Amino acid sequence: MSILKVEGLTKQFGGLTAVNNVSFDVEEGQVLSVIGPNGAGKSTLFKLISSFLTPTSGQVRYKGEVVSGLKPHLVARKGIVRTFQETTVFKEMTAFDNVVIGHQLGQNAGPLGVFLSTRAARADEARFRESADEILEYLGLSHVRNELARNLPHGYLRSLGIAIAMAAQPKLLLLDEPFAGMNVDETDRAVTMVEGIRRRGITVLLVEHDMRAVMRISDRIVVISFGSKIAEGTPEEIRANEAVIEAYLGQDDETIGH
Ligand SMILES: Nc1ncnc2c1ncn2[C@@H]1O[C@H](COP(=O)(O)OP(=O)(O)OP(=O)(O)O)[C@@H](O)[C@H]1O
């Protein structure tokens, strides 16, 4: 059963069509990756799905309901949660406290709601603390539990962003370039994290520039180039697809996962 349907999604910025009539379905419990060369429109597509941008035409349907045009926090409350960027991690707090706060973000409109936290939210605190430890554990972050976020290396900060998003109890987790800027070890760890998330039955939609890690974790891959979908299929199908090879020609061989 598909949890998300992207239907004829188009986004124009002035005369530029960043996303051009893109359609695909995301099946519940699967990992679907959107890949494409630089400037292909991946980030724009991602923002359209998380409702940070409104489409020029087309729509996104989540569990049958059109969510395009809703405020991002309302979409998040329905279960579509994007990872937190490094800039939204609270740097002066520990990894653990950041994940506890992530639970509250899942219930409130934004950080303000957290600071003005209600009695009900405080009552949930014990449950959140227990859950935060569980998340850190299965994401392999327990050993940095008490580190201040500002002391964490880049790869860990990105992982912490995923942990915070998990605390908001997503049904569909959106990962924006989770492997960007990671070295080989960090990428391996992040791949393991995504596998762990998938095993918990959470659907994952990720947008990524680099094909190599994507090949390892995706059930399906959608390829976009110059805003349009040029291919869709399993990793094996994508690897052998002529249009994909063509789109990536001139790029480093590493990018197509060879
Ligand atoms: N807010 C905006 N205003 C105008 N043009 C934009 C805006 N956002 C993106 N674009 C343009 O839309 C096109 C697609 O950009 P987008 O960032 O979605 O690509 P991308 O595939 O994510 O690229 P990368 O892999 O480099 O991050 C680019 O030509 C970009 O310059």
Keyword list:
ATP hydrolysis activity, four-stranded antiparallel β-sheet, globular, alpha/beta, AAA+_ATPase, Rossmann fold, BCA_ABC_TP_C, binds adenosine-5'-triphosphate, L-phenylalanine transmembrane transporter activity, six-stranded mixed β-sheet
Question: How does this model look, in words?
Answer:
- The chain has 258 residues and is α/β, with parallel strands linked by helices.
- The chain has a domain at 1-71 and 205-258: 3-Layer(aba) Sandwich (Rossmann fold).
- 40% of the residues lie in helices and 24% in strands.
- The protein has ten helices and ten strands.
- A six-stranded mixed beta sheet has the order 6-7-8-3-9-10, sandwiched between helices.
- α3 (95-107) crosses α5.
- The chain is globular and about 50 Å long.
Give a summary of the structure in a few sentences.
The chain is an alpha/beta fold. It is 40% helix and 24% strand. β7 (172-176), α7 and β8 (203-208) form a beta-alpha-beta unit.
Helix run count: 10
**CATH architectural arrangement of the domain at 1-71 and 205-258:** 3-Layer(aba) Sandwich
* CATH class wording of the domain at 1-71 and 205-258: Alpha Beta
What general form does the structure show? globular
**Radius of gyration over all CA atoms, rounded:** 18 Å
Element string (H = helix, E = strand): EEEHEEHEHHHHEHEHEEHH
What is the rounded distance between the termini?
32 Å
What is the number of E strands?
10
The largest β sheet comes out as:
6 strands, mixed
Q: Using the coordinates shown, work out and report the CATH topology of the domain at 1-71 and 205-258.
A: Rossmann fold
What is the percentage of strand-forming residues?
15-25%
Low-confidence stretches: none
Mean pLDDT: 87
CATH homologous superfamily of the domain at 1-71 and 205-258 - what is it? P-loop containing nucleotide triphosphate hydrolases
Which ligands are bound?
A: adenosine-5'-triphosphate
Largest sheet: spatial strand order: 6-7-8-3-9-10
Helix content: 25-40%
